Amino acid sequence: MTRIEVVTPGLLTTVQDRGRPGLAHLGVPPSGAADPVAYELGNRLVGNPDGAAALEATLDGPVLRFDAPTTVALTGATTPAVRTVEMLDVGRCVNGVRTYVCVRGGIDVEPVLGSRSTDLLTGLGPAPLRAGDVLRVGPAPSRAAGPGTVPGPALPDTPVLRVVPGPRDDWFAPDALEALCSEPWRVSSSSNRVGIRLEGPALERARHDELLSEGLVTGALQVPPSGQPILLLQDHPTTGGYPVIGVVRSDDVPLAGQLAPRQSVRFAIDG
């Protein structure tokens, strides 16, 4: 069985698969790859079955040592990856913030609640990679592989994410949705897999009473009292008491998962 030694872990590298959907009633976030399109592409390239676990590198990737010849695909954010016979140095992520290291056979860690994903909010799944960790690779699948480095589509300087209004847009001033979509927002450096904190004009509330906690979904734009929205990503809490002014379309969530700190992003009402 092939093993991978983590020489250096990078800034934040986690194990991710398709996550734990359908467990919100237990308080379990969906988790899974922040850019599912890039993750699924990587698995197809190495011939893995759908849902095989991969590594998600954020901003600066790991250095990995392999003890046997292994087929690897890099997808998502582009990197200046350096490969030798035994080593893979993923390097810094550009044109996005997350690169997927997909290994033929998948990363073989113990599943928790049906998934191998690391959940940063609850701590479910394996811990983020640390120097000296040794990862096992699963058995080679029957499908043929097509190894290589595949960059994702060029990330626009200011991506536009489509938003479906509600469910609590009536809690905001009549022009709040227009304000959301009329100006670019800046991605805060405090963003992570739980949510992207946005900086821009405060969205004014029409109601200031408390909202009882209600269910949340990936892509929800939750607005705390500061008026600065938070775009929820895969490790988001399953309930919350801040009103949600709108929800980013699921088709645009992979793009949101590649937004970099200090980058600008805009929103447009869907339809």
Tell me the fraction of residues in β-strands, as a range.
Answer: 25-35%
Termini Cα gap: 51 Å
Outline, from the CA principal axes?
A: elongated
Number of helices: 3
Number of strands: 19
Strand order of the largest sheet: 11-18-15-16-13-12-19
Helical content (DSSP H or I, runs of 4+):
under 10%
Describe the structure.
By secondary structure, the chain is mainly β. The chain has two domains: 3-151, no CATH class; 160-269, Cyclophilin. The chain has three helices and 19 strands. The chain has helices spanning 36-46, 176-182, 253-256, and strands at residues 3-8, 12-16, 54-58, 63-66, 72-78, 82-83, 87-89, 94-103, 134-136, 148-151, 160-165, 185-187, 195-199, 214-215, 220-222, 230-232, 239-240, 244-248, 264-269. Strand 6 and strand 7 form a beta hairpin. It is elongated and about 60 Å long.
Sum this structure up briefly.
The chain has 271 residues and is mostly beta strands. The protein has three helices and 19 strands.
